Amino acid sequence: MKMEGETEEMKAMAQVQQQVEEVAKAFVAHYYYLFDNSRASLVSLYNEPNSMLSFEGQKFQGANSIVAKLSSLPFEQCKHNISTIDCQQSGPANGILVFVSGNLQLPGEEHPLRFSQMFHLLATPEGNFYVQNDIFRLNYG
């Protein structure tokens, strides 16, 4: 009997991990689509006043402040090419940690920039997710 219970628990854990991965992949696709095509629309993915962004060591808090920073970057167009997405369930509040690595291609630049970005997504009472924490770094070398 104990083996059956462990098997059911393992199945349940695998199902949760699959759901976490589906949410993470859908979030990543949506986030970078908005970043590349309609950066101001990213405001809907953050929470005012709680969300936090660390961008190359600079810190910003609140959806409006975060999107103001992202909108002020010295390029209007770009294309993110995602290499990897790693994710884990986070804490008792059904959060999700998402770690992304990839390349950022800027217009007129021959070589793409490598980047890493970490998101901590938290669930809303309605069953959606928002970005609580966002850490972005270019990878040099």
Automatic annotation (TrEMBL):
A single Pfam family it belongs to is NTF2
Q: What is one GO biological process annotated to this record?
A: mRNA transport
For this record, the Gene Ontology CC terms, alphabetical, are:
cytoplasm; nuclear envelope
Location within or outside the cell:
Cytoplasm; Nucleus
Q: Which UniProt keywords apply?
A: Cytoplasm, Nucleus, Protein transport, Transport
Q: Where mainly located? A: cytoplasm
Q: Answer yes or no on keyword Acetylation.
A: no
Query: Per its record, how is this protein called by name?
Result: NTF2-related export protein
Organism for this UniProt entry: Araucaria cunninghamii (Hoop pine)
